[in-house]
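SEVERITY: medium
COMPONENT: batch folding queue
REPORTER: lab tech (J.R.)

DESCRIPTION
The queue accepted two submissions in a row. Attaching both inputs and their returned structure tokens so the on-call engineer can compare them side by side.

ATTACHMENT 1
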Amino acid sequence: MPYPRGSEAEQFRQALIAASSKGQPLAAIGANNAIAARVGVDAGFDALWVSSLEVSAALGLPDENVLASQDLQCVVQALRRGADLPIIVDVDNGGGAVAFSRRIAFELASACAAGLCLEDSAYPKVNSFATHRAQRLAEPTLTGAQIRAIRNIAGPELVLIARTETLVCGGTSAEALARAEHYVAAGADAILVHSTDPSGRQSLDVAAHWSGSAPLVVITTAFPHLSLYELGAAGFAMAIYANQLSRAALAAMRDVARIFTDTGRFADLQLPTIRELIELIPPETAA
């Protein structure tokens, strides 16, 4: 789904609306480098997701508000070299401050991101699946102020997804939906009610009760058994597969390293050729 650069955000926004009405959700794949971006393009994904977990892990950092806006900018620029797909950036809780949200919106719009996702976790955030510390919610008034600040800086040049961690923090679907309505009123283009329920029933229940005007987005990490078709039928406009490529790469690297440790050679492995690696990003496309 390549877009002319100047109209990318608006066309992505319209694609989300159309996907919601047709029950045919877009699929976004997590990518933290140009190789993953190229894999996403070749597999037919509709968008790329810059996951704070993937970027943090690749840099050897915890997923706890440690990333700087420049770290995310660099990833967006790398993905642009490997793919012409809309790029959505996970900006966590926007540093827990309106001023930081304003800055990151300006810098990501300048880097040609198509959208960003702001969550309502309290600063410092913790990954939704972490076990060493519990997630806490920020005041909805703060998240609303951050949304308005991002909209004032970026205007229509960024698709803004508002994500609530209400269910992750033990809240009810009704509480999550109330926050979602508040964020739409503040200027969000789409809503993501995150859930770590492995059955997927929490997310399906949210979709069944959502009556707002903004399209619904879902992150599927906890419930991979639900197909894209099922998520579309439930009412979701986009499904985000946030970290699957990094996890697959980790599994493959471990297997290859283990085989070398056992045999002392790489010769017996069915690896892609060097030419395949080179041709992922042809020299004439590199900037």
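ATTACHMENT 2
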Amino acid sequence: MPLLLLVSLVTTAYGWLFDQIVLLPAIMQVANPLARSKRRLRLLAVGAYVSADLLMILFVFWKKSGTAYAWTAPAWLLIYLGIRWGIGRERQGEERQFTSAAAPRTDARN
């Protein structure tokens, strides 16, 4: 459902900045796995989020109109997909590490 919300917000024919509150399920979906992820991924996610927020704050100070914020929905989608991709890669690495540690050792020396 969170991905559907993000895609629908990106592809909508119209939208307002305050409509993006509907993206809270997407944030909540990645918050817990992100909190348990490696420090590097957390820093990248926070950096991307803070960068997008700072740019939006600058737009407010520059008194940009509503259409100037059309980039925000695709930005949230890309950040979401990046976080999900990073979490998935970490899980694959953990599974590989677990299966290689659990695999029986075969020594050539008998």
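NOTES FROM REPORTER
The chain has a mean pLDDT of 88.
No errors were logged for either attachment.
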